[in-house]
From TrEMBL:
The keyword Iron does not apply. It comes from the Bacteria. The keyword NAD does not apply. Keywords: Signal. Pfam families: OpuAC. Residues 1-23 form the signal peptide. Residues 28-310 form the ABC-type glycine betaine transport system substrate-binding domain. One of its GO terms (molecular function) is transmembrane transporter activity. InterPro entries: ABC_Gly_betaine_transp_sub-bd. GO terms for cellular component: ATP-binding cassette (ABC) transporter complex. This is Proline/glycine betaine ABC transporter substrate-binding protein.
Amino acid sequence: MTKLLAITFAAAGIWVLAGPTRAAECGEISIAEMNWASAGIAAHVDRLILENGYGCTVSLVAGDTMRTFASMNEKAEPDMAPELWIHSVRTQLEAAVKEGRLIQAAPILSEGGVEGWWIPRFLANAHPEIKTVQDALKHPDLFPASDDPAKGAIHSCPSGWNCRISTTNLYKALGAEKAGFKLVDPASAAELDGSIAEAFEKKTGWLGYYWAPTAILGKYEMIRLSFGVDHDRAEWDSCSAVPNCPSPKVNSYPVSDVFTVVTKSFAEKAGIAMDYVNARGWDNATVNKILAWMDQNRATNEDAARYFLEHFPDIWAKWVSPDVAEKVKAAL
C-alpha cells in the first residue's frame, strides 16, 4: 500500500502541477456504473455532483471490476471508476499509475471493504466480555443451532463463495467443534440473511461470517469480532483461503482496499473536479444505511444517490467548496 500511495502522489503531479492552467469549465466525462449497489450509488452521486456542482456533461456506462479496469488502462475509457476494489488488479494498477495512464484518487470506502465473524449488537451489549471470536466460542449456549439447540452454530457461506472456504478453515483452526459448535452452510445468500433476520426477531444469538458494506448490516446492528491476531497474508494465500487445507491457523480476514480511479484524460478535462475526487469517501456505516434504505424502498441507484445527498449533507458537503455544495443542493 505504501508503495502504491507513493506512486500515486508522484503521478498526481500530472494534474497538481497543471492546476493553474485548469480549464474553467468541465468537459464531457464518462463514469462506470458498476454492477453492485454501493458502486452504482456512488456513480450516481458523482454524476449529480459533477453535473450540478461543476457543470460537467456526464454519461454512465455499465461496468465491473476487471473489464472496467482493462478498458480504462488500455483505452482511457470510461474516465472514472468510483469504487474499484483493487486487490484483483493491484499490480496492473501500480504500473498504470507509475506510467501516468491512471490516477488513484481517494479511498471511497474510508475503512475499506471488511469481512469477518459478527454477532448482534444487542448480544454484545448484554455480554461485554465477548470481544473476540475465542470469547464467543466459550458460550455455545448463546448461539444455539436451530436444528440442534444443544450445540452452538457458526454460520458460513453458500457453496461457491470463497468465504465458505475461509470460514471452514477458521472453524477447524479455532477448534470450534470441540467447543460445542457446528458449522451451518446456508444454501443461498437469502438463507444466510434470513438467519440474521430471525435472530433479531427472536432476540437470539447469531455468530458467523458477513461483510460490509451491505444492506443487511444497515438494517441489523452487528459487531465484528476480533480473531486476536493480525492478518497473515502468506498464511491466508497458502492455507486460510485454500480448500481442505490440512493444518489451518487462526487468521484475520484481509481488509480490501477500495479506491476511486480516474484516467489522465479525466484530470485534463475535469481538472476543476480533482479536489472533489481526492476528498470523497464515506464509511461503511453510512453505506450500510443507504443500502438498507434502498432495499426497504426497492429503490434504484439514482434514488439512493438522491436520498444520500438530501439526508447526509453533513458528509458530502465537506468534499466540495461551499459554492459547489449550494449548487448541488439547489438542483435536488
